Amino acid sequence: MTTREKIYESAVVLIAEHGYAATTIDEIAAKAEVAKGTVYYNFGSKEELFRQLLGYGVDLLTSRMTEVSKGLKGTAALDAIFTEVLQRASKTPAFMQLLFTEMYRTGRAWQDTLLFVRENVLGVIRNVIAEGKESGEFDPSVDPETASAAAMGALAIAILDWLAYHPSTPVDELHKSVSQLLLRGLVG
Amino acid sequence: MTTREKIYESAVVLIAEHGYAATTIDEIAAKAEVAKGTVYYNFGSKEELFRQLLGYGVDLLTSRMTEVSKGLKGTAALDAIFTEVLQRASKTPAFMQLLFTEMYRTGRAWQDTLLFVRENVLGVIRNVIAEGKESGEFDPSVDPETASAAAMGALAIAILDWLAYHPSTPVDELHKSVSQLLLRGLVG
Amino acid sequence: MTTREKIYESAVVLIAEHGYAATTIDEIAAKAEVAKGTVYYNFGSKEELFRQLLGYGVDLLTSRMTEVSKGLKGTAALDAIFTEVLQRASKTPAFMQLLFTEMYRTGRAWQDTLLFVRENVLGVIRNVIAEGKESGEFDPSVDPETASAAAMGALAIAILDWLAYHPSTPVDELHKSVSQLLLRGLVG
Amino acid sequence: MTTREKIYESAVVLIAEHGYAATTIDEIAAKAEVAKGTVYYNFGSKEELFRQLLGYGVDLLTSRMTEVSKGLKGTAALDAIFTEVLQRASKTPAFMQLLFTEMYRTGRAWQDTLLFVRENVLGVIRNVIAEGKESGEFDPSVDPETASAAAMGALAIAILDWLAYHPSTPVDELHKSVSQLLLRGLVG
DNA sequence: TATGAATGAGCTTTCATTCAT
DNA sequence: TATGAATGAAAGCTCATTCAT
Hints:
Structural class of chain A: mainly alpha
InterPro entries (chains A, B, C, D): Homeodomain-like_sf, HTH-type_TetR-like_transc_reg, HTH_TetR, KstR2_TetR_C, Tet_transcr_reg_TetR-rel_C_sf
Oligomer: homotetramer
Distance between the termini of chain A: 48 Å
Order of helices and strands of chain A: HHHHHHHHH
Protein name (chains A, B, C, D): TetR/AcrR family transcriptional regulator
Strand content of chain A: under 5%
Number of domains of chain A: 2
Pfam families (chains A, B, C, D): TetR_C_24, TetR_N
Shape of chain A: elongated
DNA-binding region (chains A, B, C, D): 24-43
Domain HTH tetR-type (chains A, B, C, D): 1-61
Number of helices of chain A: 9
Largest interface: A-B, 60 and 59 residues
Helix content of chain A: over 70%
CATH superfamily of the largest domain in chain A: Tetracycline Repressor, domain 2
């Protein structure tokens, strides 16, 4: 593992746990087992480290989401996306946690970075929902804009809650529950 | 407005925008137009201010959620709860934003406070879903634990996204979209 | 002495000795017997402290120079100015040292502040020389622009050299030497 | 240009602009287009680089000053020296600037180096003035010690002011103004 | 009840220096 | 001879907290 990767990994985990503002470069360096200066040598600043970290993770996530849903439509596409997101959350829970706890900060500083993040993450789902609606598989009264945010939120908070309070439950059950809720609704 | 209230309001807004760790007592005092010492005179410490603020807001929210759903069951109860949450989000958007962005921090420091918060907010919804399931109105395969987290997440992220990126959309539309998604599903 | 004054005094002395860049806020705070935070509470930043310190000292110096030369012309005016500058150098040697060693830094950061400083200090002398030239007391071929810089430089370096290497020489001798050099020249 | 020369040139320019303390090895290496390690390979340390740079420049300057004034006395000798200093300042303005802004630092660290520098630079002028005084060309009441510092200062600051604020003025005019001022005085 | 000057621990950042290549 | 990733001491700065008024 390169120095950059060690720093990256440590930063993701710590920021996910304590948040960006509450995580110190000292902690990141200590966890990565490098000197504090090395973090700055490799990333320039705390802000830049976070920006790169968000960018990299979001790129990875959205490109995978796009890939697994390619050629699929409606229910099948959403299901593939849910599976992918859940698998990524199992493997790298810290990044998922980080993503959803920092994504709706509205202070000036991050606005453009976060807008980009949201656009990418929600965009993939919104497209699938919009297509499913046009093809007649989804209810015509569905609003893709709101529905994609709500669907993503359902998935995200279910994951965070699972990670924080029920980590022993198998991923499959989570998948089934969320899928069913979002596709068929509580009424069924 | 009393001194305490002025400080409370300012703190909610600022913490919602920048997060707990990134909000300073100086900023809170300045926004509330009181001296810094006054914040300490009234709340003792930053942590205590946040604890009281969370506690007060969550109490208010959950007691209202319980109240409006009293005597109702299943769909009707959920609908009443959604209406209430959305109304509160319209009136005090900052608190909602704060609640959902700070709720899944997993550092040691807050764990007990946040566990209490989560327990209360999710509890109300979980009970309604569990009752609806038993009464046969909701699908018997629904898992109230996961479904309540997912439902809360759908509502929460839909609200945050709305507040941050579509504040001009009427609440009613949001309500309709989220209700339909959670009750009937995308398939409808 | 107020807290601000204590910090001010300490900063002048230390910056005069080691230069702006080599003087630390820790040293200034220690010498002033206040906490480091107190320096920031009172001046905001190291740069701002230096700016205020320069501004205050230059104001004092130039207003005194203007005052003592008021109503006087040519030789008499210059002599009064030299007397005043030398007296100030005896009383507050540190500020004089600081002024002349930091005055010709040409890095971007200070350019505007230093331009202002130079304008004020040289301005007073330039006016006296220009008037003396017009009144016929000074040689008509003198260029006030260059001559004022040269005169200031002669005075400044004579003072610095005196402070650093001959502090025991009486001020009067210095005054006589510099006056004679600038008014009558080496040839006499 | 050798590696050492490239580093030397870059260091002179940057230290002249920002001062010794505010100039970093990184900047010097970048400007010289070599790696940071190369600066250390060639000069050992930042302090040693500065020492060599000062020593080399001062040697060159004083040896030229001595040479051009050899065989000359009084006015003629001084005029030759002024011409030489002005020519050097035209060619290598940065070193001149550096020399006079770092020469009167009185912190312990440099004291011996700077004393040596001052001794050499002022020494040449002091000797010429002392000789001119003995030969009767200069006023017998002139104090060579003070006069040499003042004369050097006049020349130096006139040069710095010229470099910083009137670089378009021809050297000749500067030369004439300073010569006249120092030899004949303002009264003429 | 309210104030705000003062504090100092701890933060982000810089930078001279080293060393394996 | 030259490199540049890595280091860590030390710098500038922030901010929760205290306390005399």
